[in-house]
User: What shape does this take?
Amino acid sequence: MNEPYVSVVMPVYNEEATVARVVGRVLAQPCVRELVIVDDGSRDRTGDLLAALAEKEPRLRLCRHVQNQGKGAAMRTGFAHASAPIVIVQDADLEYDPAEYPALITPILEGVADVVYGSRFIGSEAHRVLFFWHYVANRFLTTVSNMFTNLNLTDMETCFKAFRLDVLRRIELEEARFGFDPEVTAKVARLRVRIYEVAVSYRGRTYEEGKKITWRDGVSVLRCIFKYNLFRRASKPSR
Assistant: This one.
């Protein structure tokens, strides 16, 4: 592909300390056609910063939720506005590096994958050493998800996910908060699309630095694994 071919969807909530740097790094990637940002009801200066950036950068498409609705709700809004053939999910912090987009989307460009997960637990990329129990919880939730989906993912909860746009259009997402990850995993698995993993680096944040996920979100993720693998249809009816 000669023209930029990636839509990046970024949910944002109270990220005034990092959002401008992340926007700059995303838009510096030659493959990026557009950056769709969903300001999910931020109460700090995030909204003002994004408005100023959007005035200067035509590739930045800014959407706003009046009230905070959660990551899943922001992803639904962002996906609805994405238009490029490949869609990448990017968080608004500095935990995942946009410079790794080429590695993330290579299996799609080579025609062997429809969905790619960027795993923090394979390969030899750099990883910040942080919370042991977060690691244990992540591996547990990934394992439980794999038991139902019959996938062998190592990192279901990763932020870095890339999708072919036509695959996203076949999925109807419902979850508002961090249930997005187990829900979308269950639904792409049921579609029987080709799923790959690639190694990515990870610079995790502490709670003092702005990390938001808590043990309650972990419980919600477990609930969603059961909900979307046992009781719900994976996709919209065929037409």
User: Anything to note?
Assistant: Strands lie at 6-12, 32-40, 60-65, 86-89, 115-119, 161-164, 195-199. The radius of gyration is 17 Å. Residues 52 and 59 are 13 Å apart (CA to CA). The chain has one domain: 6-231.
